[in-house]
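User: Reviewer 2 asked us to show a designed sequence for the structure in our supplementary figure. I'm pasting the structure tokens here. Could you produce the per-position amino acids so we can include them in the response letter?
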């Protein structure tokens, strides 16, 4: 009986030492995956997927920026250079820049029992929060979906530690 109690005490002590670092690792991996998934799906997953507003294709007068004006016979014109570049491009991906610069700019660091997600791109905040003229296209922030995933992974980690 006393031997089992000592074993349990030793196991709990080991778990108490290992668990904080494992939890931070889970948060780090799940957070990075969450941000990447939001970019892939072009929306923010909270209760469900909230899709980002599409890119603007008209000017102030309501004219289509993606097509040339009609030809002499009144047929619709072909795509402009802007229209060809935007045809199949994801929303927060630049053209002629190599693509996923914003998505690839995210960094993760651990600090005093915390995981901090950041980016060096100054315009990321404007896209994430939106402005008067720029629609909100959130890709990071508090999310019930992310919290559930982290909680489930930490529960699995604790179960594995107890089974060792």
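Assistant: Here is a per-position design you can include in the supplement:
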């Amino acid at each position: 009986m006393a031997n089992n109690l000592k074993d349990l005490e030793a196991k709990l002590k080991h778990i108490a030492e290992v668990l904080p670092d494992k939890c931070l690792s889970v948060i780090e991996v799940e957070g990075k995956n969450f941000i990447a998934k939001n970019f892939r799906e072009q929306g923010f997953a909270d209760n469900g997927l909230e899709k980002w507003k599409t890119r603007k294709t008209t000017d102030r007068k309501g004219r289509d920026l993606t097509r040339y004006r009609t030809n002499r016979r009144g047929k619709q014109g072909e795509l402009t250079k802007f229209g060809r570049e935007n045809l199949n491009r994801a929303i927060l991906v630049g053209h002629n820049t190599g693509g996923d610069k914003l998505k690839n700019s995210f960094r993760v660091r651990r600090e005093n029992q915390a995981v901090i997600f950041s980016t060096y791109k100054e315009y990321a905040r404007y896209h994430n929060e939106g402005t008067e003229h720029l629609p909100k296209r959130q890709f990071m922030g508090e999310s019930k979906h992310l919290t559930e995933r982290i909680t489930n992974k930490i529960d699995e980690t604790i179960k594995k530690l107890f089974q060792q």
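For the response letter, you might also mention the following. The chain has a mean pLDDT of 82. The longest strand covers residues 106-110.
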